[in-house]
């Protein structure tokens, strides 16, 4: 029997539900205008080589600045964009933008940085993805080896044979591939071996308590061992403390990303961070 908060709670609850539904509908209706209105931007979060502590790349992360609602988190708007399908155009825009930025940093003398871009389920299911990636590389002049695409386990597991085909085709373009949020989904290990991946990204939910929770430490250790036996590197997400970093170094994890080094930053700030770290 539902008797959660006594009298009045039911109407309160439905008002809140209504607010949420209204907001969702509003975001849904306005999402297809973000590109023409210039409300979408990319922030860049540094990825660091743990051994040398050098910045070796960035992950591009979408940001939506709504004129009235303010900042809307990608955790909120990406599922809605996915549902309506506009994520395909938004994702293509992000690919072009990130490739241009990576090329600009390269031209500014920052060396061969890796630029990681997230792919959504709809994008990955779209047969035009190969053309989109090719066009982004060609237009920007970024060498394919500098681009890394991230897919999640849930995307990869949606149609296993097609995933193998698509990843193999992407790999043929010369780009790198990473599995994002690894450990949070349900990867079929027998397929993992058939995916031509370069990196596994250990999800931040494991990294967060890595020094205090022996289970999370054990999972991360197992992910590192498996990645290495498949010739992949490991990128740890959500590295917030020196203790996290030292523990991950001890496990043989190659790269780290997290607030310990930098939050995701607008392009100009990320460029300044890059110059500061190189000095
Ligand atoms: P993700 O790809 O796993 O990205 C990592 C998220 O962790 C980012 O959240 C980042 O800001 C956050 N993060 C990084 N370091 C730390 C840390 O040390 N501590 C904590 N607590 N968090 C940290 P963000 O930017 O809010 O993005 C959330 C998710 O939205 C991403 O997770 C990704 O799944 C999705 N997303 C973002 N941009 C794009 C995009 O361009 N395309 C697609 N398809 N998805 C995107
Ligand atoms: Mg990612
Ligand atoms: Mg991730
Ligand atoms: Mg994550």
TrEMBL record:
<protein>
    <submittedName>
        <fullName>Diguanylate cyclase</fullName>
    </submittedName>
</protein>
<feature type="domain" description="EAL">
    <location>
        <begin position="24"/>
        <end position="278"/>
    </location>
</feature>
């Amino acid at each position: 029997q539902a008797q959660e908060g006594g009298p009045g709670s039911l109407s309160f609850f439905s008002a809140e539900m209504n607010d949420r539904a209204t907001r969702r509908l509003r975001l849904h209706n306005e999402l297809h205008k973000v590109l023409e209105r210039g409300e979408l931007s990319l922030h860049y979060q540094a990825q660091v080589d743990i051994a040398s502590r050098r910045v070796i790349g960035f992950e591009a992360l979408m940001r939506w600045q709504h004129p009235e609602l303010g900042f809307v988190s990608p955790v909120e708007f990406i599922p809605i964009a996915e549902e309506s399908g506009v994520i395909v155009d938004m994702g293509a825009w992000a690919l072009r933008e990130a490739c241009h930025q990576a090329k600009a940093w390269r031209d500014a003398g920052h060396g061969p940085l890796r630029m990681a871009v997230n792919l959504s389920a709809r994008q990955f299911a779209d047969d035009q993805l190969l053309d989109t990636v090719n066009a982004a590389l060609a237009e920007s002049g970024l060498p394919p080896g500098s681009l890394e695409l991230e897919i999640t386990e849930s995307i990869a597991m949606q149609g296993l044979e097609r995933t193998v085909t698509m990843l193999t085709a992407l790999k043929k373009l010369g780009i790198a591939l990473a599995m994002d949020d690894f450990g949070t989904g349900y990867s079929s290990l027998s397929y993992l071996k058939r995916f031509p991946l370069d990196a596994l990204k250990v999800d931040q939910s494991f990294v967060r308590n890595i020094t205090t929770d022996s289970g999370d430490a054990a999972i991360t250790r197992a992910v590192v061992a498996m990645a290495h036996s498949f010739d992949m590197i490991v990128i740890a997400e959500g590295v917030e403390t020196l203790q996290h970093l030292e523990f991950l170094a001890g496990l043989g994890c190659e790269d780290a990303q997290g607030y310990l080094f930098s939050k995701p930053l607008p392009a100009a700030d990320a460029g300044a961070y890059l110059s500061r770290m190189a000095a």
